[in-house]
Structures are given as structure tokens and as C-alpha cells.
Specification:
2 copies of one chain form a homodimer.
Chain A: H1 24-34, H2 58-67, E1 71-72, H3 75-80, H4 87-95, E2 104-106, H5 111-124, E3 127-131, E4 151-155, E5 162-166, E6 171-174, H6 180-189, E7 192-193, H7 206-211, H8 219-222, H9 225-228, E8 229-236, E9 239-243, H10 256-259, E10 268-275, E11 277-278, E12 282-290, H11 293-306, E13 312-316, H12 318-323, E14 339-347, H13 349-365, E15 369-371, H14 374-381, H15 385-394, E16 397-407, H16 411-428, E17 434-442, E18 446-456, H17 461-478, H18 497-516
Parallel strand pairs in A: 2-4, 3-4
Antiparallel strand pairs in A: 1-2, 5-6, 6-10, 7-11, 8-9, 8-10, 12-14, 12-15, 13-14, 13-17, 16-18, 17-18
Helix pairs in contact in A: 2-5, 4-17, 16-17
């Protein structure tokens, strides 16, 4: 049974009942490899945590509450809408120092209510943070609200309907507040799936997937979330945008692609139309071992370029394989040499059989050998990574992930550059890290790299990580990679956006922002300079 | 041997040597079905045609010429850059009345030369029309230049290099001035193809494909051109945009999707990075007959949603099948009942065999029967449509095409609405038309409809067509379709853009335009109000 919202961890990931302790092997690893000698004090409790004082004028707050069917501003409500789920955010939540929480949480029940809220916020200069699952890992829920009369969270949980399934066009008309499992449950009943399963699947929402350009573990088969969205309804301070009259169009630039990735800075997504597919009859995930990251990468490239089309394609590097992170249930048990790939197929029984057989031929020809049980192990642990991070933080480690992408020819250079930058920065800070990596998403032209870093915490772990992350970002840009493949920009990556799209690119985004949101109240500081 | 530029028809399509006369069957059809009794006078010759006088100040012209390696302003050069290839454009070219031609044609040899030209044009308020193949069918080459100091065409023919093939990432770095066949020849030598074959393939350019969101006849297999572009370099009056560090990214909105479809109004594409694939060993195109447009459409939908993946998927309606337009070599020969589909596969021999066999099972189960020779006939005539139009105009007919797209569930309604609107408008004008249609591009969620209309010409055929087209556009929007699936907006569709993306959508495009091109010199009147 899924936990209710009030049962969720307020300062960590998801369901506290799911957060198991680390094994003795992992404790030994932390002690021996990272030199961690003592655990951290327990996180502040929800009751104890201090919040920054409410700044919003009571009269404005009352007027805003009048506009929506449901709202809240008690201590718990405010605390549960403070910050996201990056490691710096978690460290801040744990620290017990006063948190920048929204003054008020509004839960609109309709597009029209969202429009009314934006109208009033614009008039009274109140910052508005659209809130889905609250799982941003790039500072997307940390607005630069100082110049505003206050900040509210617009929690979209009540916009959670499956309005319609267009069976012929295989489209679902869904609300942005639906969490992954709830959306799948509603669709599965009717025989359909979206097929979008990022690590945040259990808690993040469809609106968040769209606003942050999320990509799921089955992206090789189903596509990224931004590829699955064909229609959007967006409430903005300047009115409504309704986009998507056909799967594809030549009616000028594709404005859907401006809203996808806009992270709440251009508007609030109040309805989505997404491509759905029949629930697959069969799902098979297999583990394959390669001698090296290079040979495994070449095999994944071969599969995505020439087929057969796989649904899941992932490849851990030697370090990640050795530590067993691709199989969280066996973390630290070691014993896996080489590089572990997960190759999965979903579809009809015949289709899965044919594609799986064809892939086996390709994989064996590339030198891969099967790893029994690795596939089911991966499937069992596929959403557990964030729990692991909480446990590592408890144990006194600093643990975080970051990701990037580039074209295939640049991938080895990008891999080396990011690893080196992280290692150098953290070693220079006196905390030599363990650095793990996997190829998490593949395309004909390139792939993404997903890094996991762990080391001992220094006195100021937030500053410690910020320095390492900055070194990694600089290395990513020098190596030609993208600053994010699927996490987004938020505030954390905003300083590097000009390196990605140029000063002119940023100026274009700012011009769009000024046009849509002249008062700048939408998620200020996120994506574009406020 | 491909004709040189000066050998091309200046007032019609492509190579005059390819433009055959209409058969006696077609003449009979025009006479009996459309009541056309006399041919039109021959088009004006290049020598005779009048051009509007040059307005550009000689000193500015000289300064502009200084900036680029090659330029021209003689009568032929100007006339060959006047207007595009819509039927209204062709009628204007034929009419012999003074044409709005550019004052000067510049042929820059580098990105830097383009930047310098834009700089000077911005400073002196000279309108700039980026010019690729000159094949726009939506008025993309008819700038609203009256408020400017003159207008120049920026002919990108010299930006025609294949700079590099990234074999590992299967990417080609190409110049925007490359025409379809030249790009394919350069790539084929190295074993690759782009796989983009629109009807304009022989004369349009890669930059034009990108700027207008072109879609080719093999889009089911290779994707639309906008899906094949992963990188862009763009010269603008505000500097350079370089976009695309990875196949996909979450670094905010995808700005590539703002340039794709911008039709020269936001900047000049000076380099593209496009996905390429190995040249297929085997190409097989088969004809299949369905009882009805509905049953054929359902079968195409079944194929694109559940596979096997075809490379070409098209379906003519009853009228188009009866007239034989899907087999232009046999036009007017009649005899084909039902609805003809073309189902094509490209790839390795084994892959084509497997997919073709699997498709045959699906098609036969859907009631289709093979039509021998229809596939090769289609292949032979696949680029001949525009020549046919010239011959019909010669013969006294008004002939034009238009296209739209929507989701599958809306397709029957859209099909009826557009046909009815065209028939009513032209019948009311005293010229009952023949209306043909085919499904030209398919997606999991929907498809495009491509209409061909022919009727007798009235005294003012441009006004006659404008009225019919306006009726069709209104019907498209009322039925929920897109104003263009692959032709673009230009000036012809600009009045309906707000109906597609809303007033706010247009305001966003205008804001982007102001930011990039504050003097508004880039293709004024195209896409956004000038």
C-alpha cells in the first residue's frame, strides 16, 4: 500500500518504511575506502525544524486562499514544500537551520483557478513555485524570491485526473498532478501504459516529467517523456497556451518544445496529452557482462543504431559493476568483474522473443556473456537509489549523482573528463571519492552518462559538493557535453546555461519569459536570470 | 545529368527537359470533367518579364556586395529569386505583370559573411530573404518589404559542403545550400544517406528543409527532417546561435525547435548536423488495394502503431486512386478501383524481407490485395507532381495542393471538412473541382492529409484560389487540424497562425523575433506579423 503524503519522509526520499539500513559490507566500504569513521547526527525532525518567517501579507494570503478550493500554511505543509531532493537540499533539510519554505501552499482544482492565482500573484508581486512531486535535484524548488512580496507553492496534486483515453490515437489526456504509479494504475486498467519509469517514478508527477524533460529507464523503447507529450495546456500570467493539434506540424517553431523543459518559469502545465501504448504482455530484463566499458558501449551503440530495438539499455562502468550499484540489493557484495549491462525487452511474447534472440546474437558477437539474475535484480532495485543515498548521508558519507550527454564520438572523452574533475576536486578537499558511472540512455547519435559520487563529508558538505559539482560542470562543457540530459537546469545549473546555448540563447529565453511573465513571478531564478 | 541553375525553368518547376505534355486522357478529363475548353497563353519568357524597379540605394548595394565573394543584380538573377513555387506564385510569374524581385542577390561563402550582411542590413534597414532552393509553396519568398530600404536575397548556394561525417555517431555536418541530390551523392559515396525525400527533393536545400520543417516520402522509416537535425549554427542580427551538444538534453527548452520552422524569420542556418544512416542495400515498394479509405487508414495506423516498421506508408483515397495520381506515369488511365496504398521497406536484405513478410500478413488480414507494378510506378514518378502542375496550368486548369494533419480519431472529420470546403468554394465560384487526397505521413498518434485540387481557371485565378484556400483553412481549424504538416507558414498561412498556437503563441514568436532581429529585417511578414 502506497504511503499517504503525510507518511512520506519530509527530509529524505519517499516511504520511510522502505528505507533499509546499509549492509555491513557497505559500512566496511565506507570505513576502509572512504575513511568515514562516524555517522551523522539524525536529521532534524519535522516538528523541530525551523522555517524562515512568513513574509506574505495576510490580506494577500487570504485573497489567494479564496481563489482555490484547498490550501494550507501550517508548519508541516510549509516544511513539506521547502526545497527538493538534491543532496544539497537534503543536507539543508537535515541541518536544522531555518529553511526557506513557501509562505502558503495553494492546491488549485482547475486550470481556471491556476489562472486566477497567477493573475493575483502578478498583480501583488508574489513568487509562484509550481510543485509536482517535489523531487527536483537541480534546485528547481528554491526560488530567488527575496525581491518579491513572498512566495507560494502551487501544489498541483488535485489536477490528477485521467480525463480521457483516445483509443484510436493511443493518447491519454491527463492531469499534471498525477504521480507515476497513479497514472500507470489508471491507464493499466484500460490496457495502456505510458512506459515512463525514471528513478523518481514513484513520487514525481507527470507535470514535473514534462517541465523538466525527464527520461525514464525504458527510454530506449518508449522514448523520453518530452517525446511522449503531444499536447499541452498551460496557464500563464498572460493567459492560456494550448498547443498540439497534431503529432507533428510545420506551423512554425514547435512551441511545445518551449514549455517542455521550462521548469515552471514560463507557465503552469494544467493538462497533458501523452502517447500511450498497450501494456506489454511480457517484460524480460537480462544482464550481460562485457570486458570493458568501451566494448559494452560499442555494443549498445550497435543495438540502438541497427537494432533490434531494446526497451532498456544500460551499461555500468567497471567501478559501478564492482560495487554492484546496478544491483542495489547486492550492493557491496562485490564479485562482478567487467562491466554489467542490462538489456530489456517489453512487448508481445513473440515480439520479445524475436528481438531478444536477435539481440543475443549481437551481444555474444560483441563478446558479452550472460549474468544470471542480474536482470531481475536490477528490476527489483530500479527505484531504490534515492533510499540508498539517504542511508549514506546518515552514515556520514556525501553521496550525489550528476548526469550529462553527448554524441557517441565524444563519450569516452566526456567520461574521463568528468571523472577526473570530480576526483581532483574532492581529493584536493581531503576526501578522495568513489566515482561510479553508467550509460543510462542511448540514441542513434549519442548517449547519456550518469555518475554517482561518494566520499566522506567535510565540515560544510554543501560547499564541499558545490565545489566538486562546479568542477564537473566546467569539465562537461569543455568536453562538449550537455549540462543535463534529464535532470534539468533549475538554479543549480543556471550558471552554465550560457555555455550550453550561448548568451543569445539565454537572451531568447529571457525575452520569452518577459513576454509571458512580465512581473517575473513564475519560479524566479529558475532556468533564466531573474 | 542534372541541369545547371541557368537551365532550370524560371517560371515553373525544375528541368524543362523533364516537363512532358499531358496525355490525351488527361486532356479529355480536363475537358469533360472540369469543362476546360482552352489552354492558357504561354508563360512570359524570362527576357520579357517585368520586374519591380530596384529600390535599394546604390551605395548600400555596393557596400553589401563588398561583404561577400559573389553577388548579382542583373535581370535574370533578380527574376530567378522572385517568388516561390506555390500556384499563386506560379500564376504571378506567368502573368507577365511586374514581379516583386529582390534588388540584389548575395551569395555568401561563410557564416562570417552572413553575419556581416545581417549587420549591415540591420543598420540600413534592408529586408533579407534567405534563399535555398526557392521552392516555398506558402509564400515564404514574398517578403513584406515596403517599409524597408529595399530587399535582398541571401542565396546560400555556396554553403554547400559536406564538412565531416562522424561515423561513430552517424552524423553529417553539412552546409544549408546543398540540394537534396547533391547531399545524397556526397553521403552515398561514403556509404550513408539522410533518407529525406520530399517531393521537392531535387531542387530544395537542406537549410530549407530545416527552416520549413519538411517531411519526406520515407518519413515513416527515417523520420521528418526536423527529427533528423541534431545541431544547428545560425547567423542572426544579434550574433550566432550554436545549438545541439547532444542528441537530447534537459538543459531547458529545446531551442533547436525554435529555429526549425522559423522560415528565415529568426536567422540564417549556416551549418547543420544531421543524423545519417547506412545506404540501404534493398528498397522494396509495394502497392496494395483497399476497399475504402477508412479500411486502408486503419491498416496504416495498425502498422505504424504496432509494426512492423515500414519506410514508406501512403494511402490514396478513392478519387486519387481512380485518377491514378499515385502513379503519375499512368495518370488518367483509370482502372484502379478502391484505394491504393504504397508500403515500402528499405534496409538490409534480411531486414526488408522480414518486415515485408510481417507487413503482408497484417495487410492481407486487413483485406488488402496486392497491386502489381504500383510500387515501382510510384517510385518512378515520386518527384513528378510539380511538373504535372505546370502542364495543368498550361492547359488552362487551376491546380494546387494543400496539406494538414491531426490525430487519428479526428482524421475522418478533417478529411470530409476540407474536401467539402474546397468543393463548396470552387463550385460557388462556378468551377466545380476534382479533389484528390492521400495520407502522406503517419505517426502512432495521427497522420497528415495531402489534398490535390484541380478545376477550370476563372479570370483571376489567384483570387479564385485564395478564396478556396481560405475556406479550406477555416475548415481545417474548425476540424482541429494543423494549418500545415510540412509546408510551413510563410505569408500564406500567417493569418491562421493564431488559430493554431493562440494569440499568446504568436506573441511569444514576436517576442523572440524582436530579441533576435530588433529591426525586423529577416524575411519580414513571414511567420510573424511584421
Amino acid at each position: 500500500m502506497a504511503p499517504t503524503r503525510s507518511e512520506l519522509s519530509w527530509s529524505g526520499w519517499g516511504d520511510p518504511a522502505q528505507a533499509g539500513p546499509l549492509s555491513e559490507e557497505v559500512h566496511a566500504l565506507l570505513r576502509d575506502a572512504l575513511g568515514i569513521t562516524h555517522a551523522n547526527p539524525a536529521p532534524a525532525s519535522l516538528d523541530q525544524v525551523q522555517l524562515e518567517p512568513v513574509r506574505l501579507d495576510a490580506e494577500i494570503a487570504a485573497a489567494l486562499r479564496q481563489l482555490v478550493g484547498q490550501s494550507g500554511s501550517d508548519h508541516e505543509m510549509r516544511a513539506r514544500h521547502a526545497l527538493g531532493r538534491s543532496t544539497p537540499d537534503l543536507l539543508a533539510l537535515r541541518a536544522g537551520t531555518p529553511l526557506p519554505a513557501p509562505d502558503l501552499v495553494l492546491m488549485p482544482g482547475s486550470h481556471e483557478e491556476v489562472l486566477a492565482v497567477l493573475d493575483l500573484c502578478q498583480a501583488r508581486r508574489v513568487a509562484v513555485v509550481p510543485f509536482g512531486g517535489g523531487t527536483s535535484v537541480v534546485g528547481g524548488l528554491r526560488p530567488a524570491a527575496a525581491a518579491f512580496a513572498g512566495a507560494i507553492a502551487l501544489d498541483l496534486r488535485r489536477l490528477d485526473r485521467l480525463r480521457r483515453v483516445d483509443v484510436e490515437s493511443r493518447l491519454a489526456y491527463v492531469g499534471p498532478g498525477l504521480r507515476g504509479p497513479d497514472a500507470e494504475a489508471l491507464l493499466n486498467e484500460r490496457g495502456y501504459t505510458i512506459g515512463h519509469f525514471p528513478q523518481s517514478f514513484e513520487y514525481a508527477t507527470l507535470g514535473g516529467f514534462a517541465a523538466a524533460r525527464s527520461s525514464g529507464q525504458a527510454s530506449a523503447g518508449y522514448g523520453r517523456f518530452d517525446e511522449l507529450v503531444v499536447g499541452l495546456r498551460v496557464a500563464t500570467p498572460s493567459g492560456t497556451l494550448e498547443l498540439g493539434r497534431a503529432p507533428r506540424s510545420a506551423a512554425g517553431p514547435d512551441l511545445r518544445q518551449l514549455i517542455l523543459g521550462s521548469e515552471g518559469a514560463f507557465g503552469v502545465i494544467t493538462d497533458l496529452t501523452v502517447q500511450v501504448r498497450p501494456v506489454p504482455a511480457v517484460r524480460r530484463y537480462d544482464g550481460w557482462r562485457f570486458d570493458s566499458f568501451a566494448s559494452g558501449g560499442a555494443a549498445l551503440r550497435r543495438l540502438v543504431q541497427d537494432g533490434p530495438r531494446a526497451t532498456v539499455l544500460r551499461l555500468s562502468d567497471e567501478a559501478e559493476t564492482a560495487l554492484g550499484l546496478a544491483r542495489p540489493e547486492r550492493l557491496g557484495s562485490g564479485g562482478d568483474g567487467g562491466c554489467l549491462a542490462i538489456v530489456g525487452f517489453e512487448g508481445t511474447a513473440a515480439d520479445v522473443r524475436d528481438r531478444r534472440d536477435a539481440a543475443e546474437t549481437v551481444l555474444r558477437a560483441a563478446g558479452a556473456t550472460p549474468v544470471p539474475e542480474a536482470g531481475p535484480d536490477w528490476e527489483h532495485g530500479r527505484f531504490r537509489g534515492p533510499y540508498l543515498r539517504d542511508a549514506l548521508l546518515d552514515a556520514g558519507a556525501l553521496a550525489e549523482t550528476l548526469e550529462t550527454a553527448c554524441f557517441w564520438s565524444g563519450l569516452p572523452g566526456l567520461y574521463r573528463a568528468v571523472g577526473d574533475a570530480l576526483r581532483e576536486s574532492l581529493t584536493a578537499q581531503g576526501t578522495p571519492p568513489v566515482i561510479l558511472c553508467h550509460i543510462s540512455h542511448v540514441y542513434a547519435a549519442g548517449a547519456s552518462l550518469y555518475f554517482t559520487v561518494a566520499c566522506a563529508q567535510r565540515e560544510d558538505p554543501i560547499a564541499q559538493w558545490r565545489a566538486a559539482k562546479a568542477a564537473a560542470m566546467t569539465a562537461i562543457q569543455a568536453a562538449g557535453g550537455s549540462i543535463s540530459h534529464h535532470h534539468g537546469v533549475g538554479r543549480d545549473h543556471a550558471p552554465w546555461l550560457a555555455g550550453e546555448i550561448g548568451e543569445l540563447g539565454v537572451a531568447i529565453l529571457s525575452a520569452i519569459k518577459r513576454e509571458i511573465d512580465p512581473a517575473g513571478v513564475l519560479n524566479p531564478g529558475i532556468l533564466v536570470p531573474s
